[in-house]
Amino acid sequence: MNAHFRAACFDALSSGTPIVILAPHPDDESLGCGGLLAEGFRQHGAHVICVTDRSASHPNSKEWPPERLALRRRQEFETAIAQLGGKPADTTWLGLKDSQLHAYDPCQIATDIESIVARIGARCVFAPATEDHHADHKTTARIARTLVLLDPDLTLYSYPVWCRWDDRDFATNIQKHDPVHFDIARHRARKAAAIRAHESQLGSCITDDPDGFRLDPRFVAKFIDEDEIFWRTPI
């Protein structure tokens, strides 16, 4: 881990309350926050809100039309949460259309999420970094900022996924955020199992669309081998 990243303990990141993770797609929760979630389930509690159904990744597949693929993604998501120590009640599946998140009303989504956060009693919310290039990640980050405007007592943290992989100057470019790292050694095996639960993202079950999306094994290894990174996001 970069020497300039300070270490942060779970209590500092959670404020001693349940945490809420906003995942643009099923697998982002495990990749970006799997260790944090495992500790949350062990301690004060955690809840994961998966925003989209991730049904647009294999548009040329005849065996896996969007409706079937969305169902598979949800099953994998719930399996991943179980691997991290959570239960189905610890999840919310919004099921919005993959790659079409920009077409929805962010204020309405934020309002719906606010009620979930209030019910759980969370004070800290984790959302994708705006530096991630994927449009659904950017829109989820915008929804998270709207959420905090609705409830200014919430603390918003960002977690990087794609920018951590494809930005060669990632460590330098995020220094302005004063990032921290969270040691996942205790939960590394759980996190690895959660990521592996997303089989359709890893290319192991959809065989009739070779041009469809597949997580690079090196990408997966990076998120298993390295600590997680977060930074507080001002509004």
Automatic annotation (TrEMBL):
Domain of life: Bacteria
MF terms in GO: hydrolase activity, acting on carbon-nitrogen (but not peptide) bonds, in linear amides
Pfam families for this protein: PIG-L (PF02585)
Family matches, as SUPFAM superfamilies: LmbE-like (SSF102588)
PANTHER family: BLR3841 PROTEIN, N-ACETYLGLUCOSAMINYL-PHOSPHATIDYLINOSITOL DE-N-ACETYLASE-RELATED
Protein name listed in UniProt: PIG-L family deacetylase
Source organism of this protein record: Puniceibacterium antarcticum
